[in-house]
Amino acid sequence: MPVPFSPFSAQPKHVPDLIRVLILAVVQGIAEFLPISSSGHLVILDDLLGGLGESATLVIILHAGTLGSILVVYWRRILKLLTSDRRVIGLLVVGTLPAVVIGLTIKRGFPWLTESPILASAMLIITGVLLILLGKLKPSEGEYTGMSWLGAFVVGCFQAVAILPGISRSGSTIVGGRLMGLSNEDSVTFSFLLAIPAILGATTLAIKDLLDGTEAASDLPITTLLIGAACAFVVGIFALKWLIRWSREARLHWFSYWCIPFGIAMLLFYASK
Fold first, then answer.
1. Of 196, 173, 259, 235, whose CA–CA distance to 30 is shortest?
2. Cα 238 versus chain centre, distance
3. What are the residues whose beta carbons fall under 8 Å from the beta carbon of 15, sequence distance 6 or more?
4. What is the pLDDT confidence band of residue 230, given thresholds at 50, 70 and 90?
5. Pure H helices in the chain
């Protein structure tokens, strides 16, 4: 069957499997946590280099690596959720609902949106603007354990927007948390607690695609997949600790100096093609 024409498609080039997996793992580990959008960078890299597309199996493996990073860094907070802070579990459920609704809508009706490098480039600029806004917000002292249900829903809406490639999930949810009165550190903490159901949801969808035959199982060797998971895990820990440190120092808006120039450069590149 002929492939429908897409203005966003690129002629694939062969990239060795291990190099491909390592590139994806490093980008996933860094950009999943730093507010620069892992999806946006992966979509653009896939278009520029070709052959970087993630199979459903690889999605599961890399997400498992970054999920492990969150569990290692936040294990004490997660333990408190299961004991003394159980109300926060309800807040996470409420905060996850918008992403579920919008994510399934886009996946079923507008899947091309998640594959567009031009859209990703434009949305990286939006992410940069959000980060500049973050740097201008007045300090707050609110704690995520005392957040209202409406506040959790609003932060969830910011997470839902990040389904578009180029919008940083961490950046948008941290901005949402700050707008709801949370401190820098509590905004980051709630953002990554909220990432746990988001990552589990993406993993579940990837497993579903494997089981119903929508996606073929990866033919990559198990050792290559394990190397990718380990790389995403280790890089993710360093990136997450970097983010926490910079949030305490109110430096997260510095990442706009990458997102905006890179987004503009890529838009100019695609305009010249």
1. 235
2. 16
3. 23, 49, 50, 51, 52
4. very high
5. 17-31, 38-49, 56-73, 75-81, 86-109, 117-136, 149-161, 169-179, 184-211, 222-248, 256-271
Q: Rounded distance, CA 156 to CA 99, Å?
A: 7
First to last CA, the chain: 27
Percent of the chain predicted with pLDDT > 90: 53
Q: What are phi and psi of 80, to 5 degrees?
A: -65, -35
Structure token digits, residue 151 = 């506040």
Stated length of the chain = 273
Q: Which residue has the tokens 């907070």?
A: 77
Instruction: Output the pTM of the full model.
Output: 0.86
The torsion angles phi and psi of 220, rounded to 5 degrees, stand at: -70, 145
Sorting pLDDT into bands at 50, 70 and 90, what band is 58? confident
Cβ-Cβ contacts under 8 Å for 86 (sequence gap 6 or more): none
Closest to 3 (Cα-Cα) out of 121, 119, 115, 102: 115
| pLDDT over 70 (residue 174) | yes
CA 130 to chain centre: 15
Sequence-separated (6 or more) residues with CB below 8 Å from residue 108: none
What amino acid occupies position 136? K
Distances (CA, A) of 104 to 5, 40, 97, 205: 24, 19, 11, 10
Contact in structure between 31 and 169 (CB atoms under 8 Å):
no
